[in-house]
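Dear U.,

For the methods section draft, I wanted the exact inputs and outputs in one place so we can describe them consistently. I've listed the two proteins in the order they'll appear in the manuscript figures. Please don't edit the C-alpha cell lines directly; just add comments below if something needs changing.

First protein:
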Amino acid sequence: MKIVITGSSGFIGSHLKDSLKEHDIIEWDIKLGKDIRNFTLDKNVDFIIHLAGLTDVRESIQIPDVYWEKNVEYSKKIFDICKNIPMLYASTSCVKEWWLSPYGTTKKVLEELAHDGHVGLRFSNVYGDGQRDTMLFSRMINNSLEFVSENHIRDFIHVDDVIDAIKLFLYAKDFEFDRIYDVGSGMGLHVNNLVEYYGFNVEKRVGESCEMLDNTADITKLTRLGWSPKRDIHKYLEGKLNGRTKLENNTEGLLS
C-alpha cells in the first residue's frame, strides 16, 4: 500500500511510520525539508494520514495567525488535492470547546472543511516514548514538574493505542465511516490527584481560561468498530518513575 504521512517525524507520526515498514511510505515533514506548504501528491497513492500541524493551546494564544496559516490554510490545500483519496487527519478533543483557543478553532474549521471520505480523529492527551518535554508525563519522568492544575480532568491515551486506532481505519475493506471519532481511553483522571498519587508535591494552580476543564473522550463509536485501549497508564508511569513512592490510597480516587 502506498501511504502518505504528513508530520512523519513528529511524536505520533514517527511511531506510525515505524509500525508501517511493510508499506511504501511517502513522508512530508518540515524536519525532512518537506514543508506541507508545498504539498504535492504522488501518483497511485492509496491513503493519506495527515498529522502535521501546530498543537500547543497556550502558544496559539500568542501567535493565532501562524496557527491559522499552518493548521487551516495548508491543510485545506491538502484536503482539496486529496479530495478523492481516503484520509485520516488529526483533530483534537479541544474542538468540543473550540472557542477557548485559536488552536481549537483551527481544528474545528478543519472538521468543517474536510471532504467526504476524510475522517477526523479527535485525540485526547497522547503519551508515550518520544512525547514532548513540555508534556505532563515528561515533566514527571524528568523530575522537572513545578506546578499542576488543580481543576483539570484529562483523558490519557498511549500512543500505541492511537496507532492501533489509525490502523483500524487504514485496513478497513470499505472506507465508509462517520466524519469524526474521539480517540482516548474514555476515562478522565484528576490531574492533581494523579500527580499527588506518585508523590509529587508541587504548586497547584487554576487552569488557564484557554484550556478545557475536562477532555474525557467518548469512545463509544470507536469501540463499536472493534477497537479498545489496551495500555495501562499506571504500568507506564511506574516503569518510567522507577518505583517512585506512591500515596497509600485507592486509584479510584483519581477518576472523574
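Second protein (the one for the lower panel):
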Amino acid sequence: MPNKITLTELSERLKNTSSGQLLRELHTIALDYAAKGETFAKGYASTRLNVRSGRLVASIAGRVVKRKGYVGLKLSAGGGGDDVKYAATHEYGATIRPVNAKYLAIPIHPSLKTAAGVGKVPGPRDIGGLAFAQSLKGQPLLVHQKTGAAWFLLRQQVKIPARPYLAPAMELVEAKMIPEVSQVLRGVVTL
C-alpha cells in the first residue's frame, strides 16, 4: 500500500516539481554522468584505437543538453575548435576511395614512416624514382626503380572497420544512470 501524504505535502511536491527542482536534480545527475561518459569514451578510444597524436581522444566531450522540460546527455568527438574529421570513421567504419587518382598509395617502406607510424612524405609524387609494378599475386605496387624495393601498396579502396568508443561508453553510462534517475522520479511521482 502506498505511503499516504497530506494535501499540503502533495501541494509542496507539485510546487517543487513545477518550479524546476526536478529538472535541476536531473541536470545535476546528467552533469555527473556526462563527465563519467567522457572518461569512459576516452578510455575506450585509447585502448581500441591506435593513438598517434591524441587529438581524437582530446576531442571527446560529454555534455548535458538542456531544453525547456528536457535534460539529456550527449557524448561527441571530433567537434569543437579541434576538428578531427576521422572521428566518425573510427566510430562507424568507412570505405575510403581515392579522390584525385586511380589508387590510394599506402606507404609500406620503413623509411616512409616515423616510429609512431605517421607518414613522413605527403605521397608518392613527392618521391622520385618510383615505378608501377605488380607483385606475383597481382597486387599493384610502386617500387624504387634502382633497388626494386616496394615503397607503396596501391589500393582502389580501403575498408576501415567500425571501432566504436562513444557508443559503448554511452551504453555503460545509461545503464548506471537510469536507476538513479528512476529513484529521483520515484520520489516526486510516487505518492
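Candidate sentences for the figure legend, describing the second protein: Strands lie at 61-67, 70-76, 94-96, 104-107, 130-134, 140-144, 150-155, 158-160. The first strand starts at residue 61 and ends at 67.

Thanks,
Y.
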